[in-house]
Prior knowledge:
The chain is mainly alpha-helical. It has 2 domains: about 1-100; about 100-200, Single alpha-helices involved in coiled-coils or other helix-helix interfaces (Up-down Bundle). Helix content is about 85%, strand content about 0%. It has 7 helices and no strands. The protein has helices at about 1-20, 25-40, 45, 50-70, 80-130, 135-160, 165-200. Helix 5 packs parallel to helix 7. The chain is rod-shaped. The N and C termini lie far apart (about 140 Å).
Amino acid sequence: MRxxxxxxxxxxxxxxxxxxxxxxxxxxxxxxxxxxxxxGAAGAERFASSxxxxxxxxxxxxxxxxxxxxxxxxKNFEQAASQIADAKSKAxxxxxxxxxxxxxxxxxxxxxxxxxxxxxxxxRSSLDGAPAGKGTEADIEQLRADLxxxxxxxxAARSAVxxxxxxxxxxxxxxxxxxxxxxxNGVQMATQKYNDMVEKMRPxxxxx
Length: 208
């Protein structure tokens, strides 16, 4: 009888010890995973890669600790709770950093696009006013083709911004700006060519 009572006491003590660590912090771990997923959805892998990598590592460590402790007879989730909090904090930081960097890159790309738009507009105005007389038709036609190329690059830059490929957007916009500048210079050269031709064709007596 005494042995049976002693066994029951041991069983009760074991149950108490098993439960002393509490239940696994599943809800907190899920919250950390949701924060990590939110950071990924915000583009942290692209725009805040180091912060995102740190958050991923912290979450993996927390998850591993929870799983390891859950398999033990005497559970203690104190360390896991600290790791989960760290993982969530780092995930939130990665999301915030991604948002800031994305805005910075977009602002930079938008600025380059705006400059290209202005350059193309100015080049188009110059081209529309360029003399299209005999001897300059081919030049003007080529300049219009070049300006169409600048328009295409500008359209591609805008599409790249929409896809959040800001680096590509800047490259395309800079190409558009460069082509617009070449058109503007070409208009000046065509105008000078036309003026020289007109001057050459003037009667000698008009030059006196």
